[in-house]
Amino acid sequence: MHNDIHYDIIIIGGGAAGLMCGYSAGSRGKSVLILEKGRRVGGKIAISGGGKCNFTNMDCGADDLFCSNKHFVKSALARFSQWDFIGMLDDHNIDWEERAHGRLFCQHSAGEIVSMLEELCRTNKVTINCNSQVSNVCKSDSGYTVISNSTEYSCSKVVIACGGSAWPQCGAGEEGYAIARKFELKILPPEPALVPLLYNKDDLEHMGQLSGNAIDTKVSCKQISFSEELLFTHTGLSGPSILQISNLWHKGEIIYINFLPETDMAQKIEQARINAGSTTINKLLWGKLPQKFIRIWQERYWPDTAVANLSSEQIEQAVNSINNWGFEPSATAGMRRAEATRGGVSCEELSSKTFESKSVPGLHFIGEVIDVNGKLGGYNLQWAWSSGYCCGQEL
User: Fold this and answer.
1) H helix or E strand, kind and range, residue 247
2) DSSP per position, 205-230
3) What DSSP character marks residue 13?
4) Distance between CA atoms of residues 329 and 257, nearest Å
5) Which of 1, 17, 111, 230 is in Cβ range 3.0-4.6 Å of 239 for a Cys bridge?
6) How far apart are CA 286 and CA 387, in angstroms?
7) Residue 156's closest CA among 4, 10, 359, 374?
8) CA pair distance 167, 192, nearest whole angstrom
9) What are residue 373's DSSP bridge partners?
10) What pTM was estimated for this model as a whole?
C-alpha cells in the first residue's frame, strides 16, 4: 500500500454534488481530493436531458423536493438557489434556454457544465482522481483514513457524494449507503423514483396495443396531481406525468388518470342525450383522443350504442374511465429506468446547515445519497448544487 497522503477534505463521488462541494470547499483554501470511480467526472450530467442537461428550474422551492422532513431542504435552497447556479453559467458564458414548466436546459451541450465545474475545481487547486474505487473508510482520533486503489489517504473530513441507486448503467451504486451503514446511520430503503410504471396483468393485454400513443393528462395520487403528457409503452405507462407521480406511488396504491382534463364527460354526455341522443360516446371523443385509444376503451368500458340508450350505470362507468380512470401498477420499471432515487440516508441523521452526521463528527452526506428526491424538471440537480455548495462552505 502506498504511503499516506493527507488532505483537509476527501469527497467520494465526482458527480454534480461532489464537484460543486469540491469547488466550494477549495474556494475557501481547503486542500480537497475528489475520488471518482468512473472514467470521468460528471458522467450523469453529461448525458442528462438528452445531452442538454435540465440543470435547474425557474421555480424551485422546498415543495418541489420530497423527504421525510420538509424543513430539511429549506436552508440549502435559501443559501444557494437556482439563481445562484444560473449566475455561475452566465459568468462562464454558457447559453441556456427555458422550456415548458420552467425547466432550464443548456442550449448547446451538457458537457459545458461539466467543463465549468472541472475548471472551477482546477482553479481552486482541487485534486480529482478518476478510476478510483474506494474500498474502505475508517475513523480515527485524528480524522479519517480512506483507502482507494491500494492508496491510503488521510483527511479531517469525509463527504459522501456517491449518489443514489438509480441509473446503475451510468455508475450508480450502493457505496454511499454501505458507508452510512458502517457508521450505523439510519437509511430509508432506496426505491426507484421518476420511473415508468408497469401494467398489471389485466391491463397489459389491452394497453400494450397503445404503445407509442401520447395523451395530455392529469394524473393524481394522494391528493397531488400533475398535468403533463402520458405515454403508453409495451410494458407500462411513462411520460412526464407518470414519472412525476411515481415519486409518490407505493405498491398497492391506485393512481387516477383524467384523459380529458378540460372536458367534463358527464356534462358532455348529458348534453348529447338532450340534443341528439343518437350520437355515441365514440363520436363525442372523436378528435379529442387517439382513435386506437377510443376503440380499446369502448371495448372495455361502454357499449357502442346511442347515448340515449345508455343506462345511468353505463354512463357513470364511461365517465370514470375517461375523467377518473383508476390504474393500479404492478410495479415500477426498476432502478435501470429510474431517473432518481427515493429514500437514502435519513435527514434526521444530518445537520441541515452543514450536512454533517449528528452522531459521527466529520462525516458529511450530500446530494442524492440523502433521502431527498425532487420532481421531474431540474429539481434533483438543483438539490445537488445546493447541498454540495452549502456543505463545502461549512467544511
Assistant:
1) none
2) HHHGGGTT-EEEEEEEETTEEEEEEE
3) -
4) 12
5) 230
6) 49
7) 10
8) 9
9) 66
10) 0.94
122-139 as b/e, with b when 16 or more CB fall inside 10 Å? eebebbbbeebebeebee
Report the SS3 class of residue 104. strand
CB 293 within 8 A of CB 206: no
The pairing of strands 96-98 and 103-106 is antiparallel
Burial class (CB in 10 A: 0-12, 13-18, 19+), 349: buried
Q: What residue type is assigned to position 25 of the chain?
A: A
Q: How close are the terminal C-alpha atoms of the chain, in Å?
A: 28
What is the CB neighbour count within 10 angstroms for residue 273? 16
pLDDT of residue 260: 98
Q: Which strand (E) or helix (H) includes residue 266?
A: helix 265-275
Q: Return the closest-CA partner of residue 114 out of 50, 176, 53.
A: 53
Per-residue pLDDT of 219-258, as tens digits, reads 999 999 999 999 999 999 999 999 999 999 999 999 999 9
CA–CA distance, 379 with 375 (Å, rounded to integer): 6
Nearest-angstrom CA–CA distance, 82 and 61: 9
Query: Looking at the chain, how many residues does it have?
Result: 395
Tell me the β-bridge partners of 160. Answer: 12, 365
CA distance 61 to 81: 9
